[in-house]
Amino acid sequence: MEDLFKNIIGHCKTYGFIFPSSEIYDGLSATYDYGPNGVELKNNIKQAWWKSMVQMHANIVGIDAAIFMHPQVWKASGHVDAFNDPLIDNKQSKKRYRADVLVEDYMAKIEAKINKEIAKAAKRFGDAFDEAEYRSTNGRVLGYAAKHEEARLRLAKAMTDGDLEDMHQMIVDYEIACPESGSREWTEVRQFNLMFSTQLGAVAGEEGKLYLRPETAQGIFVNFLNVQKSARQKIPFGIAQIGKAFRNEIIARQFIFRMREFEQMEMQFFVAPGTQEQWYEHWKAERLAWHQSLGGSDTDLRFHDHDNLAHYADAAVDIEFKFPFGFKELEGIHSRTDFDLTQHQELSGKKLQYFDPERDESYVPYVVETSIGVDRMFLSALTRAYTVEEVPDGKGGSSERIVLKLPPSLAPVKVAILPLLKNNSDLTSLAHQIYDELKLQVPCEYEEKDAIGRRYRRQDAIGTPYCVTVDHDSLDDNSVTVRDRDSLQQDRIAISQLSSYLQERLG
Ligand code: ATP
Question: Which domain holds residue 451?
């Protein structure tokens, strides 16, 4: 899996998906730039989300709020006082870690041991193996499971209570060593606020202190009434937004999984008090279905209920994806109660209530939120799509190819138009003609450099679903060869039919 991760990162750079930021100055830690194919894939992800949320729901509308917000917003939301991560330093390596992540990694190691025992037993018992039975009776597995559960509950309690001493004690008790140096000499655990701050114009000091938003959600809450009234929405309804968010993460590794500047796609769904549980279940199912519609399956997606709830939530679950470094949060679904609107109402002194004609009363609505990182979605789409496989080489043997099996809706280029030879003006001008027509309908690429086999490989590597080859016969029969990226099947299609043939398959 480690190799897979390295290969994906290398692939991203070679094929213009993602570059380290400011690379000529040796980069800036945990900051990345999206290249020509990356920006297309990223835009397609955003479009898929926006369409499924806004276009497909009459009762969800979008906004695009500013990144800067009044500083009181972050006081009201709790971010100034409570948006902290527990930080710990290793005295020997001088490396800094998140204490909760160290404990989570310790738990993941126990889980790996359990899985190893199960894999061994499955091999030993063959078809007769009953995993559930083995888990509930095998002494060694039960021992590991008990250790895991003890750590899970203790971590949840320490996080909920903000108990930094116990966080430290856990690291001592579980004999957690620095992954870098192997040393167990740790500092105390301290709180670290994750918000970036900056200064407003020429106003000095605390007065002019502004924050870069750590989530897009607050831009939605403060606009709740503006949107509800102008869009004439009735509860239940939602507000969706895609935009940048910033967090001064203590450790930002794992490529685009954890960045300091990233993008979120969030939707706040405003509901009547008492109905939040039903809507929470509704959005859990809807969001899972969205991931499944883009190729997700039971083997790479799972729900994970939060053990320690954030100060604003009465229920919270993560949709986790099996990244190359294990199952991790891809999206969060949170029942945020009326916390945010009530806080803003109190601090701003402005009423943020809705008059419900059916109930004949005014109330502060409850909120169910769905929140996903665009960049994490990007990494999950790449992880799922990246495939190395043997294919026939056309000479009776086989050769290896790297192909991105992206859903067509996400692929950066949908169709590549390839004249068989570049120095035959009849072929190139027909290919150009086809390109000029098709580009009005779908994102296309015209490519004439290199042998046709190499061009196919390059298009496979960026995930182009269809390659259209213009050959000598095309000049006589007005037909082209269309090659399917996944099945490698080649169809001969009349040029007049090409557009409808492709639309049907790409739709
Ligand atoms: P984590 O536990 O991984 O730090 P979180 O629980 O703090 O994540 P949320 O506050 O729920 O994350 O944010 C919603 C979504 O935003 C996450 O599911 C994730 O996809 C994305 N996200 C959060 N932090 C980052 C980051 N530093 N880099 C990239 N994406 C992020």
Answer: 413-506
